[in-house]
Automatic annotation (TrEMBL):
Cofactor: pyridoxal 5'-phosphate
PANTHER family the UniProt entry points to: PROTEIN MALY (PTHR43525)
Record protein name field: cysteine-S-conjugate beta-lyase
Aminotransferase class I/classII large domain residues: 40-375
Matching SUPFAM superfamilies: PLP-dependent transferases (SSF53383)
Enzyme class name: lyase
GO molecular function, one term: cysteine-S-conjugate beta-lyase activity
Native source organism of the sequence: Spiroplasma eriocheiris
Endpoints of the signal sequence: none
Record keywords: Lyase, Pyridoxal phosphate
Amino acid sequence: MKLLECNRELRKELHECRRYHDYHGEDWLFMTVADGDFKLTPAIREALINKVDAGNLVYSYFDEQLYQAIKNWYLKRYNLELKLEEIIHGNGVMHLMQVGIETFSAPGDGVIIQTPVYEPFLEVIEHKKRKVIMNKLIYNSKAQHYEIDFKDLEEKLKDPVNKILILCSPHNPVGRVWTETELQNIYQLVKKYNKIIISDEIWQDIVYQPYHHHPMFSMEKDSNSDVPIITLSSQGKTYNLGGLQYGYAIIKDPEIRIKFAEMLQAQIHYASNNVLTSIAVCSGYNDPEAYEWYQEYLSALWTNYQYIKNELEKHTKIKVINSEGTYLVWLDLSFYCQDDKDVTKYLNQARILANEGIDYGQEYCQFVRINYATHFIHIKSCVERLVRVFSSSEGEMK
């Protein structure tokens, strides 16, 4: 059964959608903010409509069905058992990350991130008056992917000023799905230097074969482990539900969980339930039809990515970084572009709105991030435009 539907027309009519807010014109392609052009799975849509049709949206609470749905998902997807009390709800992954930073560090402390990385990581650290400590990822040209600089990471973890490591797993924007060995190495280093891990795993379900996502808390092989791990996730990417502003934390250590929950409770107006959240999450995680939609979604995303990689590498000198997960592809334009001004110039010529690498730091000014969660028609058009402008540029360079 084909359940996946995509809006084939550019969604200019959805003026409230963040991705299309900066509307340039009918012939522009919008490949920016990380949400998709795919309609909700019918199962979730019907459940939400039924709730609204019931006639009220009064105050609600996080009931046991919601906890159980998350528990069931981790058992089904990752063969991992959760206790209901290990799950804490909040208003989005970034809100929960902020709570973790506030709880387990003080102003002036260092928070380690692995760059290039999702820009709000830097923003929330700086907003909370902590220091951004960069553990820069290393590009492996043979494997065409990024890897962790473990030597540098250990040096950063040694420093007593640095209290927290924030992990992006799978990684936005470079598309890495960290192996179990890599995650175990991180775990052992954090344990050695008595630090805390906050792992943003919102992309956990957007992973392509033969890769496998390993939740960070699953690295705790010993039930008596003293490594504090805060694993954050949501259905935002899995079922295209970012607008619900919901996320959850999984914290197995009781002491860490209590401290985290107390800080969250102090922000009670940020920690109450959106009545539609429970409906959507329970439907997405429990309904067999929703799971079938999710499988179709993964297949469509993989088809889009493969087309981008094959065509750009065939017709241009653009380096397409391997995407093992997420629906974002990180493109190296350094053959054509000296700086961010060149990147902007070529994207404008192609009439493509994308996330330019300069947003991730000066050293990434020759890169661009493309969101490929859209109809194949738009993917084909995007690739054709990039091929056209860069092929012309190559001719001029000669």
